[in-house]
Design brief:
305 residues; alpha/beta; six-stranded antiparallel barrel; 10 helices
Length: 305
C-alpha cells in the first residue's frame, strides 16, 4: 500500500476506484466497503484509492469536542494495509478544506486531483460544506464529471447498524464483546512503559505502567481485563487494570498490565496490549491481602483455569 500525506502528493492512477471517509476503527462496515472497492477494481483493471483525513473532522469543526478515536493513525494504516487498499491518502483536514462546497469537493478533489472513475461510499455518507453533499448529489454529478457511483448499505450485526460511534460507546462501557463483533477484530492500544510506584512488586504482581502516546486514543472503561501483550515481538498473556487503584489510595488514573511469566526490565520501551475479555470492575478491597487474593483469581481467569 502506498501512503500519501496530502492530496498534493498523490498522482493519478489508472481506473481509480475510490472511497472516502474517516474509517475510524476500520470496522466490519468499512471492510464491506473495501471489499466491494477491490472487487470493482479487479473487474476494471483498476487500483483502489482511499481518501481519509487527519485530524478527524469533528476535532477541527467543534473546538470543544473531546472525541477519542478507536484506532491511532498507525493502527488504522496497519488495518487498511491488511484490507488490501492500494493507495491511502491522508489529507490534513482544516477549516478551509471544510468550506469546500459539495460540487467543489467532487470536481476539484475527486475528479481533478484523484481522477475517480468509480466511487463507492457508505450508507448515508455526506460531504462538502455543512455536509450538504449526499448520494443523490453524487448520482447527479457522476454523469457530468465522468464517474460512476455506488452506495453500500450499512453493515448490520444482529439487526443493529454498525458505526464507529456505537463501538466507542461499547468500549467506554467495558463491553468488549460487542466492540469485537462490530470491529471484526480486537481492540488494542500501545504505549511506552514508564516508572510507577512499584506497588505491584511488593504484592507479587509487578506491573508495567503504560503511557499512551496518542492523546486522541480512546481508553476503555475502568476495570480489569484479560489481554495479550506484545513485547519485543513476542506475545504474553496479561491482566490489565485501568483506573485509580482505590485499595492503595491512588489519586490518578493509570493503565497497568501484569505480564504473566515475564520479568525483564522494559522501561522506556513500547508495548501493545490486545484486549481479549472483561474480567471485573475496579474495586476497593479492605486490605492488601484481599487484593492479592482477588489478583490470584483474576490470573486464573486469564490462564483459563
Amino acid at each position: 500500500m502506498k501512503i500519501y500525506h496530502s492530496l498534493e502528493e498523490f498522482g493519478k492512477v489508472k481506473n481509480a476506484v475510490v472511497t472516502t471517509g474517516t474509517f475510524d476503527g476500520v470496522h466490519v462496515g468499512h471492510i464491506k466497503i473495501l471489499e466491494r472497492l477491490k472487487e470493482i477494481a479487479d473487474s476494471v483493471d483498476g487500483e483502489t484509492v482511499l481518501l481519509t483525513f487527519f485530524p478527524h473532522p469533528r476535532m477541527v469543526l467543534f473546538s470543544d469536542n473531546d472525541l477519542k478515536l478507536i484506532t491511532s493513525q498507525h493502527e488504522k494504516i496497519d488495518l487498511l494495509r491488511k484490507a488490501g487498499v492500494d493507495h491511502l491518502i491522508i489529507h490534513p483536514f482544516s477549516k478551509v478544506f471544510s468550506r469546500l462546497s459539495s460540487v467543489e469537493f467532487v470536481r476539484d478533489v475527486l475528479v481533478n486531483k484523484i481522477g475517480t472513475s468509480r466511487l463507492v461510499i457508505g450508507y448515508n455518507h455526506h460531504f462538502g460544506r455543512n455536509r450538504e453533499g449526499s448520494f443523490e448529489h453524487l448520482k447527479e454529478y457522476g454523469p457530468v464529471y465522468g464517474f460512476q457511483v455506488e452506495e453500500i448499505c450499512a453493515q448490520d450485526v444482529d439487526a443493529v447498524s454498525v458505526s464507529s460511534t456505537k463501538i466507542r460507546k461499547a468500549l467506554e462501557s467495558g463491553d468488549l464483546k460487542t466492540a469485537k463483533v462490530y470491529l471484526g477484530h480486537q481492540f488494542q492500544l500501545s504505549g511506552r512503559v514508564v516508572a510507577g510506584e512499584n506497588l505491584g512488586n511488593k504484592i507479587g504482581f509487578p506491573t508495567a505502567n503504560i503511557q499512551v502516546l496518542d492523546a486522541h486514543k480512546l481508553i476503555p472503561a475502568n476495570g480489569v481485563y484479560a489481554v495479550r501483550v506484545m513485547v519485543r515481538e513476542k506475545e504474553y498473556l496479561g491482566m490489565l487494570n485501568i483506573g485509580n487503584r482505590p485499595t492503595v489510595k491512588g489519586i490518578s488514573k493509570t493503565i497497568e498490565v501484569h505480564i504473566i511469566n515475564f520479568n525483564a526490565s522494559i522501561y522506556g520501551e513500547e508495548i501493545t496490549v490486545v484486549f481479549e475479555g472483561w474480567i471485573r470492575k475496579e474495586q476497593k478491597f479492605k486490605n492488601i491481602e484481599a487484593l492479592q487474593c482477588q489478583l490470584l483469581k483474576d490470573k486464573q481467569i486469564v490462564l483459563g483455569k
